Amino acid sequence: MKARLAEILQQAAAELPAVHSRPEFEAAKARFVGPNGALTACMKQMASVPKADKPALGKLINDAKTALAALLDAARERLDAAELAAALGKPVDPTLPSPDTPNGSLHPLTQTRDLITGTFKKLGFAIADGPELESEWFCFDALNMPDDHPARDMQDTLFLPPDARSSTTRRGNEAYVLRTHTSSVQIRVMLARKPPIRILSPGRAFRRDTTDATHSANFHQVEGLWVDRNVTVRDLKSILDAFVRELFGDSVRTRLRPSYFPFTEPSFELDIKAANMGRLSDRWIELGGCGLVNPRVFENVGINPGEWTGLAFGMGLERVAMLLHGIDDIRHFYANDLRFLRQFA
Ligand code: DAH
Predict the structure, then answer these.
(1) What distance in angstroms lies between residue 222's CA and the mean position of ligand 1's atoms?
(2) Pocket of ligand 1 (CB under 6 A)
């Protein structure tokens, strides 16, 4: 029996380190210590051993059992470590720099807005902001747009339900609207600051328009306002000329066409004509509205029209972007189609 035990241990010491998978390990374990294994067979033989030899042989069997357990443990630990390493994959070096992520790019409307604001900043304009949710007073009344003005028509303006009106901020009983133009920011700025004022306000505007190639219920505008002493139409023209040249190049021509807005007097449409505007080349195209601030607007915000004069202008951001890039459908801006957006990366 002594020789047999030594043989079993020798076998185990040779075989177990060569085990490389769970099934191999389980099979080896069964061969040595399982119910039909080699060690169990030896233990069964103890019954037929003479009584005097039992203590010594019993100790030998126990020693063999301990030695086998140690060999099995070592083999299991090796398998565990190998499986863990396989699950973790390649070793990671956390000190290495991360792999490059693909760069995104600014939306063409954002790029156009930045181009416009950048141009006006060079001309000394500061950027101003105002709320998209406005009371009728800021959006219409203060801008000298009387109750019966067509822009206040239910068809054009998106009104908020009456219970959404805040009793703490509204003036009188007026309704709240989604601003139909960024001209409301003029009023906010003139109420908050003393002249001279020179601001540009890009932002969202909303109208009850049905979406088509040139209309969107949610679009963007840029509003400009300059209040100072002796501001004239000549200043208006020279500022808009400088702006348009910066965007469309020196060959572009501009024209102020007489028009009407309640908040300016006189009022004009700014038209441009250039050779590099795709199918719109060499035609007069309307870019936006402008004029000298109507004295009634000054009165509404507590600025003395005898002392101060001003110019104002407003234009659609989408329109500028479409002319700059030859885009023929406003809906491209909102579809988030990467094939479109990547052309502006
Ligand atoms: N608010 C006008 C609109 O939405 C645009 C506009 C016209 C703004 C003339 C002005 C202006 O400041 O002077 O159509």
Answers:
(1) 9
(2) 181, 183, 223, 261, 264, 289-291, 312-314
Where does the pLDDT of residue 320 fall: very low under 50, low under 70, confident under 90, or very high at 90 and above?
Answer: very high
Two tokens at 244?
A: 């348009």
Query: Torsions phi, psi of 45, nearest 5?
Result: -65, -20
314 alpha carbon – ligand 1 mean position (Å): 4
The CATH number that domain 108-344 falls under is: 3.30.930.10
Could you tell me the distance, in angstroms and rounded to a whole number, from the CA of residue 141 to the centre of ligand 1? Answer: 14
pTM of the model: 0.71
Q: What is the mean pLDDT of the chain?
A: 91
Condensed to tens digits (0 to 9), the pLDDT of residues 93-121 reads 889 888 888 888 999 999 999 999 999 99
**Sheet harboring 176-178: ordered strands across?**
133-135, 176-178, 158-159
> Is the CB of residue 157 less than 8 Å from the CB of residue 151?
yes
Expressed in angstroms and rounded, the spacing between residue 331 Cα and the centre of ligand 1 is: 23
Of all atoms in ligand 1, which is nearest to the CA of residue 225? 12
Instruction: Give domain limits for the chain.
Output: 2-88, 108-344
Which two tokens mark 316? Answer: 């659609």
* Confidence check: pLDDT of 42 > 90: no
